[in-house]
């Protein structure tokens, strides 16, 4: 499939666009939001594949029947806004339009039939993380990958052996090489932000699994087209809830069973929360300030506010506070009922497996004693006085394992409603997707409370 090659000297220069991620799937309430024109959408179905006419989690005969009923005038298609090109004009589309030609007709019935039959080498259109109508050749048989949450998603789908190229976080003994041993034989392809495109020429990869154009080379589609590589941009960390991204990737890889197994576990948490808080008004939900280190109110779609909201909390921006820098006095003015911090250590991050306590010392000292950050910014708040403060490692805060962080936050802010066995959820996740490790190696570091830190230092 990646038969066309481009001489290395002709490979275009990379353009990196900084900024926040553009479009994100939210659990049970899909939406799209771009920094340029605030496009909103509601795709409903979590399987973001054109051809999923009835907007559920599957491509099957029901979709064929649904399109036939639309053609006969017996059913109405669900339309949503998306883009044909990144930052282009918004268009109204429906997943019933499987071949994305702008109309729903017999050709879509035939197209979906090929999808149901799992026809090899057919073109499949999907709705990507930036709200763009993207496409790839089905199924993806080998790939290059950039960024840790994308490796995590591929592991979940059981397709690590298809990775032929890995970014420098994983290749050449990078930061996460130890954690992602399943990809150790993949060729080095450079930074996740700016691949070494010369290294891609001879890899014969079908696709590159990457993230939003706001962070990961917005020109990649053009640059890699002559190489015969499709670009797959799906939500694996941006909104904290990644079930849609995993299900969609599972279809594109023809690894649906593994993707559904993941979704079943994540849904067991998310559905329970959704069910138990459905009658709680927004005004009655507890107010939660969440931040990496207490110095900023996070922008939407960075994974922080979405995780809080998925747990049933009311993020401080809903009170009218704007994202941006904040100090201790500002947090005191907000006076949140609960506070959540995020650290870049623990699960998925740097740790010393031979001596976990040394890393625990480092993390706990950091959150406890860093001037103008973490606990030092909130010591005057009622949340601190009431010990309504927790810290979650980034791996369980954003990305495929984020439902674990959601469960932990739900336990804290609704102690009378929830008692999730978070340790068991974490252990199952590690056993399922990182069997070379033991969950106990990360004990006390992937999520912990202010009270845990105080107990640690009182020993």
Quick gist of this model?
This protein has 459 residues and is an alpha/beta fold. 30% of the residues lie in helices and 15% in strands. The termini are far apart.
Could you characterize what this model shows?
The chain is of the alpha/beta class. Helix content is 30%, strand content 15%. The protein is built from 14 helices and 18 strands. It has helices at 61-71, 106-116, 148-156, 197-200, 220-224, 243-252, 256-277, 304-310, 328-334, 356-369, 382-385, 402-413, 422-433, 450-458; strands at residues 23-24, 31-32, 79-83, 90-94, 122-127, 133-138, 143-145, 163-166, 187-188, 207-210, 230-233, 287-291, 296-297, 314-315, 324-325, 338-343, 389-393, 447-449. It has a 5-stranded parallel sheet with strand order 9-8-7-10-11. A 5-stranded mixed sheet has the order 14-12-16-17-18. α5 (220-224) links the parallel β10 and β11. Residues 1-42 have low confidence and may be disordered.
Q: Could you outline the blueprint of secondary structure elements for this entry?
A:
Elements: E1 23-24, E2 31-32, H1 61-71, E3 79-83, E4 90-94, H2 106-116, E5 122-127, E6 133-138, E7 143-145, H3 148-156, E8 163-166, E9 187-188, H4 197-200, E10 207-210, H5 220-224, E11 230-233, H6 243-252, H7 256-277, E12 287-291, E13 296-297, H8 304-310, E14 314-315, E15 324-325, H9 328-334, E16 338-343, H10 356-369, H11 382-385, E17 389-393, H12 402-413, H13 422-433, E18 447-449, H14 450-458
Parallel strand pairs: 7-8, 7-10, 8-9, 10-11, 12-14, 12-16, 16-17
Antiparallel strand pairs: 1-2, 3-4, 5-6, 13-15, 17-18
Helix pairs in contact: 1-2, 6-7, 7-12
């Amino acid at each position: 499939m990646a038969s066309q090659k481009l001489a290395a000297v002709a490979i275009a220069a990379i353009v990196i666009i900084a900024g926040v991620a553009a479009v994100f799937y939210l659990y049970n309430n899909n939406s799209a939001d771009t920094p340029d024109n605030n496009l909103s959408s509601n795709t409903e179905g979590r399987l973001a594949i054109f051809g999923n006419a009835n907007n559920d989690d599957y491509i099957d005969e029901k979709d064929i029947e649904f399109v036939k009923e639309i053609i006969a005038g017996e059913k109405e298609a669900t339309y949503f806004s998306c883009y044909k090109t990144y930052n282009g004009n918004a268009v109204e589309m429906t997943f019933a339009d499987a071949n994305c030609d702008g109309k729903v007709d017999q050709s879509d019935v035939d197209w979906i039939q090929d999808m149901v039959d799992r026809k090899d080498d057919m073109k499949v259109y999907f709705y990507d993380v930036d709200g763009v109508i993207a496409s790839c050749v089905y199924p993806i048989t080998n790939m290059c990958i950039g960024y840790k949450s994308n490796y995590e998603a591929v592991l979940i789908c059981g397709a690590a052996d298809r990775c032929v190229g890995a970014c420098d976080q994983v290749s050449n003994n990078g930061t996460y090489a130890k954690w992602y041993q399943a990809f150790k034989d993949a060729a080095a392809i450079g930074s996740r932000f700016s691949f070494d495109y010369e290294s891609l020429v001879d890899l014969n990869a079908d696709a590159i699994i990457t993230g939003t154009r706001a962070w990961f080379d917005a020109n990649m589609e053009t640059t890699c087209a002559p190489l015969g590589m499709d670009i797959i941009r799906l939500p694996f960390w941006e909104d904290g809830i990644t079930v849609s991204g995993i299900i969609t990737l599972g279809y594109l890889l023809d690894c649906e069973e593994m993707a559904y197994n993941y979704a079943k576990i994540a849904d067991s948490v998310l559905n329970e929360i959704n069910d138990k808080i459905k009658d709680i008004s927004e005004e009655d939900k507890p107010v939660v300030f969440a931040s990496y280190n207490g110095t900023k109110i996070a922008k939407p779609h960075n994974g922080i506010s979405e995780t809080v909201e998925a747990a049933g909390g009311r993020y401080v921006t809903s009170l009218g506070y704007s994202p941006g820098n904040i100090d201790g006095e500002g947090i005191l003015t907000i006076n949140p009922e609960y506070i959540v911090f995020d650290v870049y250590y623990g699960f998925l991050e740097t740790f010393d497996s031979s001596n976990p306590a040394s890393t625990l010392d480092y993390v706990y000292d950091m959150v406890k004693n860093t001037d103008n950050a973490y606990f030092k910014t909130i010591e005057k708040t009622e949340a601190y006085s009431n010990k309504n403060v927790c810290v979650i490692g980034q791996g369980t805060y954003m990305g495929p394992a984020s439902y674990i962080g959601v469960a932990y936050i739900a336990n804290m802010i609704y102690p009378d409603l929830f008692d999730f066995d978070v340790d068991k959820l974490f252990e199952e996740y590690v056993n399922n997707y990182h069997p070379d490790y033991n969950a106990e190696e990360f004990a006390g570091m992937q999520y912990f409370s202010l009270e845990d830190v105080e107990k640690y230092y009182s020993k």
